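The protein record quoted in full:

***
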Amino acid sequence: MEIKKEVGGIREEITKYLFWFVIFLIAFTIFFNELEKQCTTEECFNKMMKDCKKSNYRFDDNGHTFLYTINGNVEKDYCTVQIKLESLNINSEPSLKDKFAGKEMTCNIPYDVLDYVNILEEQRLLSYCSGPLKEAMLELMIEKLYGSIAQNFGTILNELEK
């Protein structure tokens, strides 16, 4: 009788330890699944982007430094990416630095688009974005377009008169 009590006590202890081990394993998996991966190469970031896995990548484009952060599946059927212009080229005009430095935008990109685009090179993705960085980019485009039209207004009028 005493042996049965001992076996029952051991079984109960093993069950208790097994239960806590499974809880720890689940918590460990959830914790490390939610961590953001630091990509150091464009290939790493593109792979993470295709799978919409949380990660970030600091990207230098002609002296302009961007921080791309994949936040994952925040909205259903979309991969959410935060793009921040951390710094501009040291040779950039001060007015551009004031307008752009530190600005960011959030892009909600449909999963089907992720299969055929490289987010680091795509201008077409701007339509999926919103935020102060996008607004500053659009303002600059309008200013340049307006300047070009104003500069060539006489030529444009002459062509229209023909």
User: Anything to note?
Assistant: The first strand starts at residue 37 and ends at 39.
